[in-house]
Q: What sequence folds into this?
């Protein structure tokens, strides 16, 4: 390495027994290739730009989700000021509490960020980053199945469920990403931002990577359940599952529950985070997605099937909730159904 070559950036990949090893090692493998793999293939001198290190709280070996023994490079205390911290996905449910051991990393993350580190989370790793408090008052995203739980547990975080990648904070040094494969977007973004667009293009070519330019809404299930204990609301949800195409579903739900529409709206919103009409709309669009994925039924017929007499209203709502038109959504899944 010559004197004018920038030193590789120390990139700490946070590891716990709940960390998904796939995400952790993909991040390390790809970042280690920056400045090396393209050069090796073209007979040029390698100039590594990132130095990935897998770190855990104590640096001791641990068994991952699959029981595989993982040996970190060291403990968090061995690397008090990395240039970059990446928090991979965590393999727990969205409404489960983070393991108590996770809190041992919070001060280290906050201290490194205060010292100038860039901190990024991958997929459900946003749960851990949110728990540090660094995202309070900021926009963020996560895997679509975790967004509601994060918003509920950390109401000061402004969740952008539709986004695949959200830079935030001072100097955009806080970055959150959507579903697991958004590691494409995170790493290409980091490489382009830190090393340059040409290097990002090289890595994309080498690894056959692409951006999720339409966001993650086309991949999201709209009716991810939110836990609650309101039995009347649960009964209304059960009724809605079979009657979402009803011409006046909210009035019917209120009648089934014995509540006024106003009381139902208040209790439903408190329990689910949605109004009754929003809930019905998501069920209708989710059902429409199933028709689009599995049949060649005309769009206007699908609209009528799920409760919309005006096809244009159906198309407008579909685009707003899913991020693409019904026709574009159907094309996306044609190959998968063949």
A:
């Amino acid at each position: 390495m010559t004197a004018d070559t920038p030193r590789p950036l120390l990139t700490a990949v946070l590891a716990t027994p709940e960390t998904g090893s796939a995400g952790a090692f993909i991040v390390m493998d790809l970042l280690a290739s920056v400045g090396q793999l393209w050069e090796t293939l073209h007979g040029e001198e390698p100039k590594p730009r990132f130095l990935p290190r897998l770190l855990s709280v104590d640096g001791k070996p641990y068994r991952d989700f699959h029981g595989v023994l993982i040996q970190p490079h060291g403990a968090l205390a061995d690397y008090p000021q990395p240039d970059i911290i990446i928090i991979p996905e965590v393999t727990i449910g969205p409404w489960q509490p983070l393991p108590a051991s996770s809190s041992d990393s919070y001060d280290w993350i906050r201290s490194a960020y205060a010292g100038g580190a860039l901190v990024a989370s991958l997929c459900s790793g946003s749960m851990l980053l949110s728990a540090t408090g660094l995202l309070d008052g900021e926009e963020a995203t996560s895997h679509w199945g975790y967004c509601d739980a994060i918003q509920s547990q950390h109401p000061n975080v402004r969740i952008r469920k539709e986004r695949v990648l959200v830079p935030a904070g001072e100097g955009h040094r806080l970055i959150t990403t959507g579903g697991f494969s958004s590691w494409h977007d995170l790493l290409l973004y980091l490489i382009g931002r830190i090393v340059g667009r040409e290097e990002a293009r090289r890595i994309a070519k080498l690894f056959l990577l692409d951006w999720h330019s339409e966001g993650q809404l086309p991949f999201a299930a709209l009716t991810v359940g939110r836990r609650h204990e309101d039995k009347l609301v649960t009964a209304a949800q059960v009724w809605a599952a079979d009657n979402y195409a009803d011409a006046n579903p909210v009035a019917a739900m209120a009648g089934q529950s014995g509540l006024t529409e106003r009381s139902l709206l208040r209790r439903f919103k408190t329990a689910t985070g949605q109004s009754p009409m929003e809930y019905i709309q998501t069920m209708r669009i989710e059902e429409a997605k199933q028709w689009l994925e599995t049949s060649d039924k005309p769009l206007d017929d699908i609209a009528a099937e799920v409760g919309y007499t005006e096809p244009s209203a159906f198309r407008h709502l579909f685009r707003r909730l899913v991020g693409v038109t019904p026709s574009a959504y159907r094309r996306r899944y044609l190959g998968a159904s063949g």
The chain has two domains: 9-219, 231-334.
